[in-house]
Design a protein that fits this description.
Alpha-Beta Plaits; 26% helix
Length: 82
């Protein structure tokens, strides 16, 4: 049985627009004017893909504010911590 990809949320400092979509394939972009950060979110198939996305953040010189597995919140609500 194949596992469903984990959803991740990356928050970076500044505005990152969709012209970088190829670099962060499969992630959606949302700019938050209140704090001047961009939220990238979407499925990440495995740890190798996660590391590739983190390399992309580093290579662009972006400041990573936070990273979390978005599925964690849903599992905590259900009492299914890993």
């Amino acid at each position: 049985m194949e596992r469903e990809p984990e959803r991740y949320e990356f928050r970076v400092k500044g505005r990152l627009d969709v012209r970088w979509a190829d670099r962060f394939e499969g992630l959606s972009f949302a700019y938050d004017e209140r704090d001047g950060t961009t939220l990238l979110s979407g499925p990440v198939v495995d740890q190798a893909a996660l590391h590739g996305l983190l390399r992309g953040v580093r290579d662009l010189g972006l400041t990573l504010i936070s990273l979390r597995a978005a599925n964690e919140r849903n599992q905590e609500k259900k009492g299914m911590n890993r």
